[in-house]
């Protein structure tokens, strides 16, 4: 499939797809005319890349991680070594801390919202005094 179709199917810009290729995250064959030609598995790979970026991983870590993700048979890839597991554990712990921070922030906001909503004379949706 051409880059435009991959972009449409994944919701990722063509520019990002070119960047992924430049960083070694994604590969494409070239047509005789020089156009990129992606295989069907590229759709899932781009989605995985997006998920890993959303988790806060940088492209250098994603490049190392992608080959270690589960093989098509569902088993762990052979390149998933102890060092990578250790690195990913650090990343998971970082994400856990971020989740805890966000939960504390949400709790704080909930308390402010509840207090403001319960204030005498305040109607729901009424503008706040300045």
Helices and strands, with pairings:
Elements: H1 3-10, H2 14-22, E1 29-30, E2 36-37, H3 41-54, H4 59-65, H5 82-118
Antiparallel strand pairs: 1-2
List keywords for this structure.
130 residues, mainly alpha, single chain, 58% helix, two-stranded antiparallel ribbon
Provide an overview of this structure.
The protein is mostly helical and 130 residues long. The protein is 58% helix and 3% strand. It has helices at residues 3-10, 14-22, 41-54, 59-65, 82-118, and strands at residues 29-30, 36-37. It is elongated, with a radius of gyration of 22 Å. The mean pLDDT is 85.
Class from helix and strand fractions: mainly alpha
* Helix/strand order, N-terminal first: HHEEHHH
- Low-pLDDT segments: none
Shape type: elongated
Strand content: under 5%
> Order of strands in the sheet with the most strands?
1-2
Q: Bin the helical content.
A: 55-70%
Main sheet: strands, sense, barrel = 2 strands, antiparallel
Distance between the termini: 57 Å
Instruction: Kindly state the number of beta strands.
Output: 2
Number of helices: 5
Rg for CA atoms: 22 Å
């Amino acid at each position: 499939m051409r880059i435009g179709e991959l972009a449409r199917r994944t919701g990722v810009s063509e520019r990002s797809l070119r960047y992924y290729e430049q960083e070694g995250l994604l590969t494409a064959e070239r047509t005789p005319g020089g156009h990129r030609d992606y295989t069907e598995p590229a759709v899932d790979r781009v989605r995985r890349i997006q998920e890993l970026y959303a988790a806060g991983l940088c492209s250098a870590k994603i490049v190392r991680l992608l080959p270690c993700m589960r093989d098509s048979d569902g088993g762990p890839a052979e390149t998933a070594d102890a060092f990578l597991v250790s690195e990913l554990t650090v990343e998971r712990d970082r994400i856990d801390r971020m989740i805890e921070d966000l939960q504390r922030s949400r709790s704080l906001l909930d308390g402010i919202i509840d207090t403001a909503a319960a204030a005498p004379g305040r109607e729901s949706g009424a503008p706040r005094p300045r």
